[in-house]
Amino acid sequence: MVLPHHTPYVTPQILHKNYAQAHDTEQFGTLIGRDLEYFSQAGFDMDKIQVKRNASVAQLYEDAIRNEGAIISSSGALINFSGKKTGRSPKDKRIVFEETSKDDIWWGSVNIKMDEHTFEINRERAIDYLNTRDYVYVFDGYAGWDPRYRIKVRVICARAYHALFMNNMLIRPTPEQLLDFGEPDFIIYNAGQFPANRFTKGMSSTTSVEINFKRMEMVILGTEYAGEMKKGVFSVMHYLQPVKFGQLSLHSSANVGIENNDVTLFFGLSGTGKTTLSADPRRLLIGDDEHVWSDSGVFNIEGGCYAKCINLSAEKEPDIFNAIKFGSILENVVYNPMDRAPDYDDVSITENTRCAYPIEHIPNAQIPCMVDRQPSNIIMLTCDAFGVLPPVSKLTPEQASYHFLAGYTSQVFLAQLPNINSDSFVLRKTPGTEDGVLEPIPTFSTCYSAPFIVLHPGRYAEMLAERMDKHKVDCWLINTGWTGGKFGTGKRCPLKYTRTIVDAVHSGELAKAEFEKFGTFGLSIPTHIEGVPRELLNPQLAWADKEAFQKELRKLAVMFQRAFALYEKDVKPEVRMAGPQF
């Protein structure tokens, strides 16, 4: 006998239809009713679409599985796919040229101009497409953990996958905060399943990712890659923090010591070890990618992490591996169809496989992700495949500005073939390439964030120098690349030595060390660090072929000078002179 208050377990279809879905309709209808005027004025046909605002993770799972072909992995994470585009499309990024921001934007190949009329056409195109969907997902959240500098962000999209992604990447409001959310400061219209009209003025393809700072809106057409939304929010914060709030936004990770409460900022491009080195059992992680250095301390912009999954294992990255559970979303990851286990070594879809998860999935995260304390150390990471930069150098304020503007690292490819779907490169062996012959490729990404730069790089560098000087912050250049020779002849600096160096930074031991000058680049390198071989600290000692060392050193110095020429006229003479000199 089934009592009235019991669930009739023999009729799951009726239960699902009459209980769960009916509750969803009532819930979202009530929440959205308060904002009905906003959506109607924006052009949404509220008689045709059902809007789901801040749906639960479980509800988004259900919709993604039912409507998008997503599956649940063996670890509980949702696996979904972004379609044709598996990475950002930097050549299709546009900034609207309008009177309120045009004098602040660093116009050029990174920030390409778009006129206001074209933006309005694309915005209407996106809303028209969203009006054809049965469900439209809305997520309201925050960017920035410090309430004094945070902004309210509204994401409007047609895929549960995108809503779950931004649920993880933005800071999730409490039910009370959601009730009082009010008007958003920034809105993303994501109609990525629908193409842009490439014959519209200013369009170069069927993909368009555009930001209008006067309207504080972003429109996405022609790409379903979720990372566009994440970096769109960062671009807005990269503009607002210096211009509106007078604070310094940074593409960096950050952690804080458990014992001494000392804060360290880590800068570094892909492959330099930023994620690995900022994860430290003796320190709490403030965040892994985007931060603001404010007048009162450091805070994370995001509410989650967007980690690379290629070759991921529990042994290499235990924190990331264990964070991939219910609530996380695996993007473009191949899985075993039998047991749904992700195959992180399979790159048949893309090398840019990713996982987005709430920062609470990291056991040693600093929650809330902010500290009211100024940084003690800045670590600039590079992976020098030419093998000539020291494993660690102490930088003067001028050198810190120089290397921040240069943003150097290097990578090694058999052939450099651009991948139109990604910022990275496809690694392939081309005919005529000899086995074992590989040449390092230098990468200079200003402020360690060239694709996301909004203002002139000198503006960020000047703010960094001012804050370093005011708070007496030590800055270190740490090379996680090769020693004893360039790639192919030398060896990569062992991780245990790099960790020992970072530990010496945090303990204060390195600041008290004796230093010697390292030629050409004018760097100060320590003569002794407990636990690190003497010959490793000075690259010239590690190279057996001294002539080859000088050749590679000079080659890299010339590369630095050519790359820095773009900023020379806009920086102080002492900063220009802080680079390599012959």
UniProtKB/TrEMBL annotation:
Any GO molecular function: phosphoenolpyruvate carboxykinase (ATP) activity
EC numbers on record: 4.1.1.49
Pathway the protein acts in: Carbohydrate biosynthesis; gluconeogenesis
Gene Ontology biological process terms from the UniProt entry: gluconeogenesis
Pfam families: PEPCK_ATP (PF01293)
Keyword tags: ATP-binding, Decarboxylase, Gluconeogenesis, Lyase, Nucleotide-binding
Organism superkingdom: Eukaryota
Catalyzed reaction equations: oxaloacetate + ATP = phosphoenolpyruvate + ADP + CO2
GO terms for cellular component: cytosol
Family per record: Belongs to the phosphoenolpyruvate carboxykinase (ATP) family.
PANTHER family according to UniProt: PHOSPHOENOLPYRUVATE CARBOXYKINASE (ATP) (PTHR30031:SF0), PHOSPHOENOLPYRUVATE CARBOXYKINASE ATP (PTHR30031)
Protein name: Phosphoenolpyruvate carboxykinase (ATP)
